[in-house]
Amino acid sequence: MSAASSGSPAAPILSLRGVGISFRGVRALDDVTFDVPRGGVTAVIGPNGAGKTTLFNCISGIYRHEGDIALAGADIQHLRAHRRAAAGIARTFQTPTLLDAESVFENVLVGTHAWTRTGPAGVLLGTRSARREEREAREVAWERLTAVGLAPVAHVPAGALPHADRRRAEVARALASRPRILMLDEPAAGLSAAESDELLELVAEQGRATGMTSVLVEHDVALVMRTAGWIAVLDAGRLLATGAPDAIRQDPAVVAAYLGTDAEVAA
Amino acid sequence: MNHQTRSRGTVATFAVATAAVLVLAGCTPRAATGSDAQSADDSPIVIGASWPQSGPLGSVAPGLAGLEAAIAAANEDGGVDGREIELVTADDAYDPARLVENERKFVEQDGAIAVVNFGGISIAGREYLGQKQVMGVSMAGNSPLSDIEAFPMQRAFWPDVSWEAQLQGKWLTEHAPDAVVGYIGFNNDLTESHLAGLAAQGVTPAQVAAVPPGTADLSAQVSQFQAAGVDTVIINIGAPTGGATLAYMDQIGWKPTVFLSSTVSDFHTVINISGPGPVEGAYSFEFFKDPSDPRYADDDVIAQYLDDMEASGHEKDATNALALEGYGLGAALVDALSRTDSFDSEGLLAAWDSFDGTENPMLRDGITLEESSHGRVIFQYQLSRFDGASWVDEGEIEDVRELGIVE
Amino acid sequence: MSAPVVHTEPTGRATAPDIRPRYRTPGFWTAVVAVAIAVAVPFLVSDYDLFNLSRVAAVAIGVASLNLLTGFSGQVSLGQGATFGIGGYAAMMAIRYLEWPVWVALLAAIAVGALVGFVIGLPAVRMGGFNLGLLTIVIAALFPVLLYRFSDFTGGQAGVTLAAPAFPSPTDSLTDAQWSYLVVLTLLVLTIAFLDQLVARRTGRALSLIRAGRILAVSNGVDVERLKLQFFVISSVLAALGGAIFAFVLGLVVPESYPLVFSITLLVASVVGGSRSWIGAILGAAMVVYLPSLASSVIPGEASAYLAQLVFAVVLGLCVIVASSGIAGAGRRLASSIERVLRERRATAPPTPPSTTREEIR
Ligand SMILES: Nc1ncnc2c1ncn2[C@@H]1O[C@H](COP(=O)(O)OP(=O)(O)OP(=O)(O)O)[C@@H](O)[C@H]1O
Ligand SMILES: [Mg+2]
To answer: Which SUPFAM superfamilies does the UniProt entry name for this protein (chain B) (predicted)?
Structure first.
């Protein structure tokens, strides 16, 4: 491991130990071991096909994988995906995925599924606790919707939203799940610089308010350097380096594999 | 509520109301149904006929054509006691659920005093007819229809299939006690009834092939029969199976003794399919005439039947024996109606149960409709043998009541 | 709209949309009108029509159970007709051989439906898609064969009949047919109210997620397998209930009523009526009940069966091509466009943000 791996906080929110996965012989991730510090924004960067999205899929339990993953010290690798979501792992998708026929509000509301508990019987009987929980869910969803600025289009079918708003809706949905970890897969793609700054600032603010940790996959290196407090670099399924932005920027292996010697990076 | 959703609600409510009005328009108003319409003295006597006109047994549809021709002819002659007979018909596609649906319509909507249908599925309607006290007549020979104790409103027209089976069994024990018998029939209760009849005369087929309607290739079963040393084959299965099997047996040069059950021995069901050659020498205990059989070319009754078929627009079905049998059933109903005291189910049933040497256009010469027993009205058979062109009588008419087969 | 201002107070409202009470939804009032008309019907039409309408209502429960499965939980079953038949046999045999009262027999059908749903559902939920289709088709094809095979038990071709009407009228002022219709109508209304409530709120959202895709659903914390199994079982229970009621209305169960084609017919009825709509289930059921006899009255004879199939196929084709949400969906869309025209004519103020309960009765 690279020299940059120092200064990691003592109690990580997420620790990965030897995470690996193969797709028909292709080693998409191999022995990935690092910690995500609690709070703030951690970025995962790397060239196309490095395994960043695959890593998200392993963490959220979509794929069965090798190795161990612990959330706030508790092992979660045996948990199925929906249990991990309930444990506080939320995510957005590289291609925003919404319920196109449903309203934007409804799309945000579905995010509350992770922490609400009412089962079909409760819904059916409309018990008092079910009603209370429903009200609370709607308030949370509305609050997140307002925070991302989509309240004026709350009733519009999600399918009619422009791309930038689809990203916002996804983020609002993920936030509505009251996550401990929010994984954002290229949230800035397709957004203007001002728009992506706004969105990430919003996420950061949410993190400060709730203690939520954000994990960011992003190709816009300047944005990553501005936003992230901690960075992990993947290349061809292997962890190349982890560290603070300054250390990563100067890591020769990272420069060689991914960053190059761009003027922008230097700036 | 804002006006957007309100107007949508209005539209939806309006749509529901419109749909309801449309549905109601297709229904019959309560007041106009059934028994009320019955009372007037000159109102028609309604009989319902639920018959397979499509589906697996769509081939029996000509039976209904014959029934219609007989009723039309009776109406042409002034009806019964000045009353017209109205025959309402419906297709049941040989689906018991549709049969019951049709019976409900006949009874509850049309005010029918009797319901006629073709076959084995009429068992499904017995319970309902019993509840409504409406007479049911089925053409079929299935043994369960003989259970008039449990279902006093149900009658059947053809004799019980097991009786003919007993005649076959009796003939075999007398003429070929060492026969090794193979049986070919439908995979339903008809086969059970038939085997029960044979067993009653001590005949147990060595081989039984029970196949679904419509089966054409029985070559596997036939070679099994041959391998088992079968020398007598009893066939009780409709088109195309019987004809195809006889043709195949002829083709491979296998010539066992053949018994055809009467209801599947006619030209349409068998001989036209196999050709006359393969049927030559076959036996059958017959009770009805076949309008396709050349021996009836000069028969007056058949000529009248053909005229009536033509007059009612059914000439294309006229050569089918099933049409003549439907015609015979219609004639029997008309006869019963002409003798009834009251034009209701009770009256008709009483008249139906008291035939007495009554002639019927479908019956062989010398065979008549008799006083009902076991819900049946035909008890006589004429053993016949196919001479290559025509069915020819062998010996005397036999009566199952006299033979102790029916007490 | 492409660049909304992120941190400003939105126009419109500042709080979450209310949960609108059901009696304030237009769908509710449409349903009230429909039920009011349906309750008046037995005093207007003949007993025979009531018998047919009762059959429609019973089949509608079966179609609605399929809507729940296909339209809401995103699963497919080509064997619902068999489950419908199993419910019918369970109830009829409970009455005929065990001499249980009708209502207990209905409960027996429900229990058997749950069992069948669980046994088929366990592997089915794991399979999904094409394999699930195959599994259910095999069950649908086997069912009538088994009925014949165990004819000592099932009555074979003759089936099982009722010796007396299942729902005899308790009063002289109503005929059996009127009473039976009202009972069946009540059961249908209860079923639809149950279903409508079942797919609401949190459960409804989970179902939306499942339909949108497994990954999206599990990422939002939905236990897809569990929910699908639950809905498979509930769907089977309702199919069995519908089948039992159908058998009671007919007074009869026979194998011939439940061929594979019947299962497929139910599926077509669900698609044609609109698999996300409860009214659509009733429309689809009406087609199942009325089309065959309508077809044979238009062209009698062998061709009628083909005419019914042709009409079915054409309507199905139309649904697939132009109205993917079925007749009910097309009607809803028509209502929306009428409403749009009305709104444009009135040229009123822009609409306020909506309440977000489901706005249509389904
Ligand atoms: N479900 C899958 N089946 C087969 N191969 C896969 C699958 N998912 C990912 N891969 C492969 O794993 C490798 C990593 O893919 P992944 O999508 O994780 O990369 P990424 O770092 O997210 O790339 P990008 O920046 O383009 O999004 C690629 O070679 C990809 O083809
Ligand atoms: Mg990716």
So the answer is: Periplasmic binding protein-like I
